[in-house]
Design goal:
The protein is mainly α. The chain is built from 26 helices and 10 strands. The chain has a two-stranded antiparallel ribbon with strand order 1-2. Strands 3-4 form a two-stranded antiparallel ribbon. It has a two-stranded antiparallel sheet with strand order 5-6. It is globular and about 105 Å long.
């Protein structure tokens, strides 16, 4: 899972400056995590030490010049190289002097043209999905769980060729199988312990294949078998459990996961079961058609053989990708399907469902990762219609469930391991419980009179239906994510968290401008938009800052008021949602939310807030009232009045007020 600090900060924060003379070579040992972060070995080369204070400017604010400017650029280059080249800083293969002569944006483009940039993008994509690992590679080989996030890989490959980066939002698509394991989690049988993994795997596959082949040969021999004997053998194999057990001994749990999802065993056995039902059950031996029965066993054999033949193409002896470009998709025709659910083994393990949680863990995951909605239970709009059920009648619960439950409905047919039960009569959950599928699905039926069948979608407002985006299937959810402005804002927010720091504060207006530019560029080409966004980030003041203060904003929107403005964490939210009423010489309720002044105690800052006596209200009282108005559900109390405010912005402003109150309570009295 992601760390609590930004990845660029780990790459680039230096320790001190010792600028003595141009002839002096500066060297420093970076933290081990720098070279480990993306699993790439760092090349040995003397690196410049960054300044201990300031950034690319002198403390006076004037641009650095001479040797200082050269070394500051050199430090920035090494930091950026590590960030954009999978953990590798400037190395012996880099012409540093030539790079120093180039404009910074050109340097960034050159680093992005390096094949190692693919590792950075994939690492970011996994961070975005909430499953970042410490290193993509071990000893130069991609780790197995890297392959588990198909949409992250597809998105990266698209970006490297200038295609559709937003495949990151597609919840169904290709399948990228990892190279098959070179060691097994469970011990092999005694007679196989000395076998090479590939040999043991081929032996297990051959044994299973022979079971199907024996049936084909039995039915197609020169002397046809008796109908009773043949039906008995086919039925016996169709109910076999040992076939699965013997096959999976040569695989580990992640591979067993795709064997089950791809129906490698269950698919052929189902064919046998169907042919037995059609040709044997209830028929006298004289009426059994041996040729049709044999043809059924041949179909089962062919399907199994087609699947395992494709699987064996991923033996490490023949498949070991060296870059993300080399990742090859599995031919899903071998699994008799044309798309693969992007929720793989890792996500299926982390996002288990049960007979009682109604896929809410999965719904919460989508809201958090794709919409940056943490479901903080702040006040919500009163729905126009009564909401039934325990969570609908309980106000604190409804504050989350009005968004959570409709999102969870996209997974209503997905049971254990995200298996699709839409064609079955029951749904089996990860806790091994089961439920009648139609009865279970009824939990998401829309209310009578609704224009839609299902109450499934991305809900922005419980009151104003036209603000919401509804759907039915996971393909609809992918479309909603692609089109939602909240998803684009979330993506750019995650970019700042990854490329700078997760706990760094950013001016909301600056992020809004940044996101709008990203959206405009993405409408033309999403891969170009992503690269341009990364370029702007690494050229930003925040990125250049050494040991940045997490509570300070270094970049601001054009024309933004900085002096005496509210804290940059919430200034834009206040300007956007509250300033219309709470600003100027006679603000509503005497509260001006556009200024941040010294409180009467002389040691804290607060909003100008005059009571009826025209005296300044205590800062804690002001913050308490703000939090109360934000969390209220009564339209007469809830703020802002008669104005739609996104749940994410409401959450952020509310949490900021809570943080300020907590901080104030810890300060000793003067």
């Amino acid at each position: 899972m992601p760390s609590t600090r930004g990845h660029a900060r780990r790459f680039g924060v230096a320790r001190a400056i010792v600028l003595v003379a141009a002839a002096v070579l500066f060297t420093v040992s970076e933290p081990a995590s720098i070279s480990r972060t993306l699993g790439q070995p760092a090349e040995a080369l003397a690196q410049p030490v960054a300044p201990s204070t300031g950034s690319a400017e002198h403390p006076s604010g004037l641009p650095a010049s001479g040797e200082a400017a050269t070394w500051q650029k050199r430090w920035w280059m090494d930091k950026t190289a590590r960030l954009l080249r999978g953990g590798d800083g400037l190395g012996t293969a880099d012409d540093v002097d030539a790079l120093l002569k180039l404009p910074e944006d050109e340097i960034v483009r050159r680093f992005m043209n390096d094949p190692r940039f693919g590792d950075t993008v994939l690492d970011f994509n996994m961070f975005y999905l909430g499953f970042k690992i410490d290193a993509l590679k071990a000893n130069g080989v991609y780790k197995r769980n890297v392959f588990d996030f198909a949409n992250a890989i597809a998105s990266t490959q698209e970006l490297l060729k200038g295609g559709d980066y937003f495949k990151l939002f597609d919840l169904e698509g290709p399948f990228y199988m990892a190279p098959l394991p070179l060691e097994f989690d469970d011990p092999l049988p005694p007679d196989e312990v000395d076998m090479l993994p590939e040999t043991a795997r081929r032996k297990a596959i051959q044994e299973a294949e022979d079971e199907f082949l024996d049936l084909v040969l039995m039915g197609s021999g020169r002397v046809p078998p008796s109908a009773a004997a043949y039906c008995a053998e086919v039925e016996k194999l169709s109910k076999s459990v040992s076939l699965h057990v013997r096959l999976v001994r040569a695989f580990n749990d992640p591979e067993v996961f795709f064997l089950l999802r791809g129906r490698v065993i269950s698919g052929p056995l189902e064919i046998l079961e169907q042919v037995v039902d059609a040709e044997c059950d209830g028929r006298p031996p004289a009426k059994v058609n041996i040729k049709r029965l044999t043809a059924g066993t041949k179909r089962a054999y062919d399907q199994f053989r087609r699947a395992v033949t494709e699987i064996l193409k991923f033996e490490p002896s023949v498949y070991q990708p060296r870059s993300v470009r080399d990742f090859k998709p599995f031919d899903l025709r071998a699994f008799r399907t044309d798309s693969w659910l992007a929720f793989g083994f890792e996500q299926s393990t982390a996002l288990k469902n049960s007979s009682t949680n109604f896929n809410r863990k999965r719904g919460a995951y989508v809201l958090k990762r794709f919409f940056c909605d943490d479901l903080t239970p702040v006040g919500f709009e009163t729905p126009q219609e009564h909401v039934a059920g325990a969570h609908g009648s309980d106000t604190p619960c409804f504050a989350c469930h009005y968004k959570l439950d409709p999102m969870s409905g996209f997974f209503r047919n997905r049971g254990a391991d995200f298996f699709n039960y839409s064609n079955d009569t029951v749904v089996v959950f990860d806790d091994d419980a089961s439920s009648d599928r139609k009865k279970y699905e009824a939990n998401w039926l829309a209310q009578k009179g609704s224009p839609r069948k299902w109450s499934v979608g991305y809900i922005r407002s419980a009151r104003w239906d036209d603000q919401n985006s509804y759907g039915d299937k996971l393909t609809d959810l992918s479309r909603i994510i692609r089109n939602a402005p909240e998803a684009k804002r979330c993506l750019t927010k995650r970019m700042f968290e990854y490329f700078i720091a997760e706990d760094q504060t950013f001016d909301g207006g600056y992020l809004e401008e940044f996101t709008r530019q990203f959206e405009r560029e993405a409408a033309v080409n999403s891969s170009t938009a992503f690269k341009n966004a990364v370029t702007r980030i690494v050229l930003s003041k925040t990125y250049r800052e050494i040991n940045a203060d997490p509570q300070q904003c270094y970049d601001h929107a054009a024309g933004a008021q900085v002096d005496n403005a509210p804290p940059c964490r919430v200034a834009f939210i206040l300007q956007k949602n509250c300033a219309q009423c709470h600003s100027g010489g006679d603000p509503s309720a005497g509260l001006d939310l556009t200024n941040w002044v010294t409180a009467p105690d002389g040691r804290t800052r607060t909003f100008p807030h005059l009571g009826r006596d025209r005296q300044q209200t205590a800062a804690q009282d002001t913050l308490t009232r703000i939090a109360e108005r934000l969390s209220a559900t009564d339209p007469a109390v809830r703020m802002p009045k008669m104005t739609a405010m996104s749940s994410q912005e409401r959450q952020e402003l509310f949490l900021w007020a809570q943080d300020e109150l907590a901080r104030a309570s810890k300060e000793p009295p003067q």
